[in-house]
C-alpha cells in the first residue's frame, strides 16, 4: 500500500520560525480557536469564502423563488435541483484526478470565475426580463459541472494552506463558516427579495461575491503552501506522451484502489456516507414534524431549522477551540450520539424538548463530519488527496437524493415519527458495524508513517 513519504513532506513544506508554530494548549483560547487563521493564505481563503458562500446561498434562495415564479411547480423545483446535482455524481471522481494533477489554487481560480459568469448570466437574463425555465436548466447543469471540479479541489486544498498540525482547526473553522453562511445567506436573500420585489439583485450580488474569493486566491503566496504533491516530470518522448494520454483513467483507478485497500479511509467513507444517507434528510423530515407531530406550523419549522443550524455552528466553534486531533473512536462516538439523539427526537412530541434534541443532532453531525474529513485528509498521501477527496465528496453528497427518496417512502408508509426512528436505528446499526470493524483501521493508522 502506498504511503506518504516523510522525506517528500520535508521537501515540500516551507520552514517556519519558532514563533510561527502552532499555539500550544497553554495559549489563550482565542488564539487556539483562530489558530489556522494565522496562516496568511488560509486567512485570505477563509474571508473570501465567507463572502462568496453567503452570496451562493442567497442565489440558491433566489433561484428557488425564480423557478416557482416561472412554473408554479414543486416538481420543476426538484428537477432544477436534480440537474444541478447530477454532474456532481457523474464527474466528481474525475474532478479529483484533475485536482491532483493541477495546482489547486489555479483550479479554484478557474471554478470561481466560471461560477461568477454563471451568476452574472442569470442576473442578465432576469434583469432583461427574458429568462425562461430552460435557461435555468442549462445554467444549473453548468454550475453542477463546475462544482464537480471545485468540491474535491477545495477539500484537498485546506491542508496545503495550513499544514497537518493545524488541519483540525481549519476544518472546524470551514465548517463554522458554512453553518454561519447557511443561517445568514438565505435569511438575507429573503429580505432582499421582499425589498427589491424580485430576485435579480440576489444573482448580481452573488456574482460580485465571487470577486472576494478570486481576490483571496490571487493574493496567496505559493511559496507558503504546505505538502504540495510533486508532479511527475515528462521526458518528452513518444512513450511518455502515450502514458499521459492514459493517465486520467490510470489515476482514477489508483485513487479508487487506494480507498478500497486502505481500511481507515474505507471505514470512514462508508460509515459517514451511510449515516448521511439514512439520517440527514432534514428538508423532508422537519416540515412534516412541525406540521404533523408538533403542530407548530411554519413558525415551528423555522425554529427547528434554526436550532439544527445553530447546534452545528456551536459544535464547529467548540472543535475550533480545542483543535482536537481526530481518531476513529471519536468519529464513531459522534455517530453513536447522533443516532441516539435522532431516535429521541423521533419519539418526542414536546416542542421545547424537540428543539433541544434537534440542536443536539446538529452538534453531533457537525462533530463526526468534521472529525472524519480531518482524519481522511490527514492519513491520505499528498499526491492522492484530490482523488480521495472526490470519493468522499461523492459518498457524502451523493447520499442526498436517494436519502430523500428513502425518507419520502418511509414517511408515506409508516408516518414521519416511525420513519425517523427507523432511520435513527439504522444509523446506530451502522455505528455498531463500524465499531466492530475499527480494529483493522486503527492498526492501519498506527502503522502509517508520521
Question: What would you note in describing this structure?
Answer:
The chain is an all-alpha fold and 450 residues long. The chain has two domains: 29-227, MFS general substrate transporter like domains (Growth Hormone, Chain: A, Up-down Bundle); 253-450, Growth Hormone, Chain: A (Up-down Bundle), CATH 1.20.1250. It is built from 17 helices and no strands. α3 (40-71) runs parallel beside α7 and α12 runs parallel beside α14 (351-379). The longest helix is centred in the first third of the chain and has 32 residues, at 40-71. It is globular and about 60 Å long. The chain starts with 5 loop residues before the first helix and ends with a helix.
Task: List descriptors.
mainly alpha; 2 domains; 450 residues; Growth Hormone, Chain: A; single chain
Distance between the termini: 15 Å
Strand portion: under 5%
Structural category is mainly alpha
The CATH architecture of the largest domain comes to Up-down Bundle
- What's the CATH topology label of the largest domain? Growth Hormone, Chain: A
Give, in order, the helices and strands: HHHHHHHHHHHHHHHHH
- The counted number of beta strands is 0
Average pLDDT reading: 83
- Runs in which pLDDT lies below 50 for 5 or more consecutive residues are 1-26, 229-246
Rg, alpha carbons: 22 Å
How would a crystallographer describe the biggest sheet? none
Helix segment count?
A: 17
